[in-house]
Amino acid sequence: MIIPAALLANIVNAGTDALTLAEDMDEATFRRSRLARAEMARLVGVMATNLAGLPDAQRQQFAELDWSTWRAVPEQLGADPTTRDEALWFALRALVPATLMWLRVYRESAPGLFEIQQG
Asked: Does 108 fall in a domain?
């Protein structure tokens, strides 16, 4: 059984790590940083995979998330280098921050969704 709270923790952790790596980068630095770019792509992929694993009921609760764009992320990350880099740059500058912001809002309004039950 997939535990939604664990998926949400993975999403938040991967998104936070990706944004930390990209924090002081402009687009030119991003395009030159092959190793950091690969790690950021991996982290954004982790977010997409975990978001896709959320049950439908939670996806409906999180209506403000850009589900259609997140569904397209894995394909874009596997595309040619130009498409991949453009998609990743967009994700780092818009999609990931917006997703993390909405998840913080949801955590405030429904903290139980984010708590992993012990036992």
From this structure: yes
This prediction has a pTM of 0.93
Which residues span the domain enclosing 79?
4-114
Is 119 domain-assigned?
no
Beta-carbon contacts of 86 under 8 Å, excluding residues fewer than 6 positions away, are: none
Distance, CA of 81 to CA of 83 (rounded, Å): 6
Check: CB of residue 17 under 8 Å from CB of residue 94. Answer: no
Question: Number of folded domains in the chain?
Answer: 1
Return the DSSP state at 112: G
DSSP 65: S
What are the per-10-residue average pLDDT scores of the chain (119 residues)?
85 98 96 96 98 92 95 96 96 98 95 77
CA atoms within 13 A on the CB side of 50: 20
